[in-house]
Amino acid sequence: SASLIDMSFTPVIFTDYMGNRTRCQALSPAAEARRRSARLSYAAMTHSLEDLDAAAELILQRIPGPLRIGAPLGIGKPHRLLNALYDRVAADPQRPMQLYTALSLNPPAPGGGLEGRFLRPFVQRHFGDDFPKLKYVQALQRDALPAHIQVEEFYMQSGALLRSTQAQRNYTSLNYTHAADAVAQRAPNLIVQKVAREPDGTRLSFSCNNDITQDTLDAVRRRGLPRPLLVAEVDPQLPWIGGSAAVEPSFFDVVVNPPGPYPRLFGLPRQPVADADYAIGLYASALVRDGGTLQIGIGTLADALCHALVLRHTDNARYRQVLAALDPELATHPAVQECGGLAPFSIGLFGCSEMLNEGFRQLVQCGVIKRKVLDDAALMQRVTDGSADADDQARLQRDGEYLQGAFYLGSPEFYAWLREMAPEARTGIGMHRISAINQLYGDERLRRLQRREARFFNSCMMATVLGAAVSDALDDGRVVSGVGGQYNFVAMAHALDDARSVLMFRAVRGEAPALHSNVRWNYGHTTIPRHLRDIYLNEYGIADLRGLTDEDCIVGMIGIADAAFQPALLAEAKQAGKLCADVLARPHWQRNRAERVGAALAPFRADGTLPDYPLGSDFTAVEQRLLRALTWLKRNTASTGTKLATVARALLSRDPGDPASLQRMALDAPRGIGERMEARLLAYALQQTRPH
Fold first, then answer.
1. Three-class SS of 536-565
2. For the segment 530-547, what is each residue's pLDDT rounded down to a tens digit?
3. What is the rounded distance in angstroms from the CA atom of residue 85 to the CA atom of residue 76?
C-alpha cells in the first residue's frame, strides 16, 4: 500500500461540508503511471472476508482519517455494512464522515390509528423482521445526525424527508448524469456496493446498480485524485446480470461474502391504480409508435401506461372500446396521428430507461418489448435503412438487447423474474452506465440509431399553462424527491429527430372542499423550463405544446384543466395580457370532471379489464378491501365538515362490517371507546366501498 501513497502529488482544493478548504492530492502524470502499475499488483491482493464487522474495521484501518463514502442509490446500497460504519463513526466525534448517495430506502414506519393497524402486519410480512433499516436515515428523520456526520443525497425517497432540515440543507440538486462528477468533486476515499456473484463462476456483477460507480471512477481519474477504496458486499439474492455490468473480483479491494441468512431485498409494494391514473395511462399509450423506444418512470401512472400498452397489444378490440368510452375522438387527435398509434405491436419496442421496474417485466412477458439493438453502428444503420441481410438479423437476434437500464427496483416478484429467467433471455437485458442511458453524448451516432421514435414518459406534480413543469420540489424550496433523470430525458426528446417527451400529471390534488388544480398559472419552483415544453397529459386529455405560441399553450393547457378551475386560469391569462380578451371556455372543456372519467371507465373496472392491481399485488385480498376502505375514509374525513358527517353516519350504521377485515385490523373485539369508534368507522367505510 505504501507504493500507492508515497508518490509525487500536486494539490487540488476540496471544500468539505463545514465549508473548510482542504488540500487533496492530485497525481502528476509520472506518478499516475506508477500508481496504475502499482494498482495492477495491488488488485491481485483483493481481501476476501466473511464478516461485515471485520470489513468495517478493515476500512477504518485502511482509511485512518475522515471517511468520504460514495454509495449507490436504491437496493445497491449495502445496508448492513453502512450501518456498521455508521455505528463506529457516530461513537467517535474525531472521525468525520460524509456519505454521498441517493434514494435511501427504509420500510415505512407505522404510526397510530387505523393506518398503523394496517401497516404494522404488512411491513413485518413484506420486509421481514430482520430488514436492516439504514440508521443514518432514521437519524435524518429526527434531525439527529451527529455534527461530524453529513449525508448528501441527489434524489430522495418521495416525500420521506420533507420535514428533515438536515436532509433538506444537504440535498444536492443534480441531473442524474452529473451525479458521478459531483461525487468525484468530493474526493471520495471509499465506494461501497452490493454485487451479485456469477452462477458457477467467479465474476461479480453490479447487477441492480451499474449506474454511476464506473462513471465516478472515471471522473476521479480525470480530476487526478487517488482511486478510492472499493468494497463489494455479495448478496446471493441479487440476480446475475452479465455484459457491461460484470467485472472481475480484482476490480474491488475488498469483497465481503457474509454468511446467511440474508435480509430481503427492498421490495416496493405495488399500489392500486385509480380511475385518473388509468385515464392518463390510456391517453399515453396512444402516443407510442410501433418499432420505437420506450422510457418510463415509476409509480401508478407508469403502471397504468404499461397495462394500457399490454391491452393494446393483447386485446386490441377491447383497448379501442376503452379509449372510445374515455374519448370518442382520441383516434383523430393530431398528436396520436402524428406520433402514436392504436394498433398492436408487430415490430415491438426497445426499452431504454434509467430504471427498470415492474412495468417492463409485464411488457417483456406480453411481447410488447422485443425490438433488439446492438452496439454496432454500421449494423444498426443497415437495419434502419432496410439493407440488413440474414447474417445481420441473426447476429442482432443472438447478441442484441431488448431492454437496457442503469438500475432496477421493484417488487419481490420482479426480482424473482430476473433471477429465474432463462440465461439466453437474460442476455437481452443490459445494465449500463447512466452516462450511456440518459444522454446521447459519447457514441451519439449509435444511440440515435438505437433510440428511434423514442417516447420519454415521466411524471410531474404540477404544470403551468405556459408549459413549465414542477416535478421535484415545493415553492418554498423543500425537496420532495429530486430531478433525477427527468431533465435528461426531456432534453434528449428535443435532441432526437423523432422523439417526444410526455409529462404526465393528475389534474387535481387534495379532497373537496380543499381541492387544488395541478394546472397552474405559475409556481415558485420549476423543474423543466417552459422553453422545453412538449406534450403534457392528464386524465382529461393531451396537450401538445411543442413549438406553440404562449397563447396557444395557454389554451391547450386550460383545455385539460379541471372544469372547476378553468375560469380562474382564463382570467389570470387575460389579466397578464397573454390571452385575447374574447377567448371563452370551449363547450367540450366542461367534460373535464372526475365523475365523467369514473363513469366512462366504470364498466371496464367492473369486468376486470382495468384491475386495481394491473401488475400484481403484494397485498392479500382482505388487505386490498381494507385499502379501498381506508382510502375512502381518508377522502371523506379530509375536512372538519366531512369528518363530522362521516362519523355521524358511521355511528348510525348498523352494518356489521367485514369480519375478516376487522380481524386483520385487530378490531373484531374492540376494547374501549377509541377502538369501538375505529371499528365503527372501518365497518362503515367497508360498507361504502363494497362492490355492488
1. EEECCEEEECCCCCHHHHHHHHHCCCCHHH
2. 999 999 999 999 999 999
3. 17
pLDDT recorded at residue 208: 97
Which residue is listed with cell 406534480?
Answer: 461
CA distance 236 to 198: 10
Instruction: Give residue-wise pLDDT tens across range 53-103.
Output: 999 999 999 999 999 999 999 999 999 999 999 999 999 999 999 999 999
pTM: 0.92
Is residue 137 left, alpha or beta, with left meaning phi > 0 and alpha meaning psi from -120 to 50? alpha
Task: Give the three cell numbers for residue 273.
Answer: 391504480
The pLDDT, as a whole number, for residue 395 is 97
> CA 9, CA 166: separation in Å to the nearest integer?
35
- What pLDDT score was predicted for residue 17? 34
Each residue of 137-182: pLDDT tens digit?
999 999 999 999 999 999 999 999 999 999 999 999 999 999 999 9
Q: How far apart are CA 571 and CA 433, in angstroms?
A: 48
What 3-state DSSP class applies to 94? coil
DSSP secondary structure, 20-44, as one string? -EEEEEEEPHHHHHHHHHHHHHHHT
Pick the closest to residue 352 from 477, 188, 216, 488 (CA basis): 488
Q: Which element (helix H / strand E) includes 301?
A: helix 300-314
In the chain, % helix, strand, coil (3-state, to 5) comes to 45, 15, 40
**Residue 614 in contact with residue 307, Cβ under 8 Å?**
yes
Residue 8, pLDDT score? 26
